[in-house]
Write a structure and sequence with these properties.
With about 70 residues, the protein is mainly alpha-helical. It has two helices and no strands. It has a domain of about 35 residues.
Amino acid sequence: MEKFVLAVGTIVVGVAVVAGFGLALAFPIKWCWNYAIPHIFGLPSISWGQAWCLLFLAGMFFKPNASSSSSS
């Protein structure tokens, strides 16, 4: 039972660390967007949550391919 609790605790802490890292990366995206995009393209400023969603979407669309094939 102790191993199960330790495993669940490790998973919860890991997910929290990954989410916290992603949330921390959302701030530079928000600041850069709000500094440049509204002045250049006339689009509205974004919130911190919207910047986090943009980071998530960009990660999904532009993630490098996990499979590597060697073409000899």
